[in-house]
């Protein structure tokens, strides 16, 4: 009888442990939202640069402006660097007590990141320096990084809501860093659309 009772208690403990573990990962809603946002911003980039010539890709509205090719290179670099913020956050223990320091909602993170009414000077690490050999090389790098990020979102058990990264605008949880990454893509897609709308943009 004692043996049966012990087995029952052990099984119950495993179930409790599994349930607690399941609660620390992303909700299905979080997972779907991040995956769809990342996927849609990737698709939008493919659409906006499709069929552009080398002349169009390298056109600059002014000497200090970025070209479309440079925007895409910046996005490829950023995809890797921003994801490293998440990897860094996971090196410390999850801490639910810090959640009160996260002041922005997911929607506000996306709105802040995609808003181009305020221009931001990028840090040197994000500067395009023709690192990937060609426009296609940069686009391929972006797509490969985004593919990896999408796979991560679909399968991760990491407790992204209780790990954090400190941006200049405040603390965000690591799930919001994923949204920041996708919003960053949208921000520079808007920049590309502004370049395309320049009156002097080459027709071919």
From TrEMBL:
Residues 1-22 form the signal peptide. It comes from the Bacteria. The keyword Magnesium does not apply. InterPro entries: DinB-like, DinB/YfiT-like. SUPFAM superfamilies: DinB/YfiT-like putative metalloenzymes. Keywords: Signal. Residues 38-192 form the DinB-like domain. This is DinB family protein. It comes from Agaribacillus aureus.
